[in-house]
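Quarterly update from the structural biology core.
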Amino acid sequence: MREVLWPRKGFLRPLRYLTMRVLRLTASPHAVAMGVAAGIFVSWTPFIGVHFVMAFVLSYLFSGNMVAAALGCAAFGNPLTYPFIWGATWEIGHLLLARQDTMQGHSIDLGALFHELHFSELWRPVLEPMLIGSIPPALLTSVIVYFGTFYAVKGFQTRRRERLMERARMRLLDAVQETV
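Predicted structure, tokenized:
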């Protein structure tokens, strides 16, 4: 029971794991950063069932890394963050569309609409404000994450290359000293 409430290795371990997975990808810093940014960008949209497909398409169009796109999608868009994403995009969408709360006194049975797939009835009150409202935060977060990831991956790859060169130099010196 204790492991469920307080994991032995801490709550941040999955975040550190994803960070290291992204940093260790062998693609260029631009490809990795673009993939992560694409994954985060599409996580803001209300179309949950196709986030990975949308991230792959965006990543492909902008020369990003597909694995990084999947990691960005999984890290940012998950069951813990979706309620906050949906609430934010709903409010931003209503602000951008200059809509008042048109649902005063009315209620929508979202479960029935989703179950029966009345897309035309679902579009105007729910999906349109969420889609419009997702654009500003998606652009902002994906640009910030792109630059942060780009410089982090570039620094990591540079340090890794220097370490490997130093090891190769030491092996060469050892080999030369053994022959002498």
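Helices lie at 2-5, 13-23, 29-43, 51-61, 66-76, 82-96, 110-116, 119-179.
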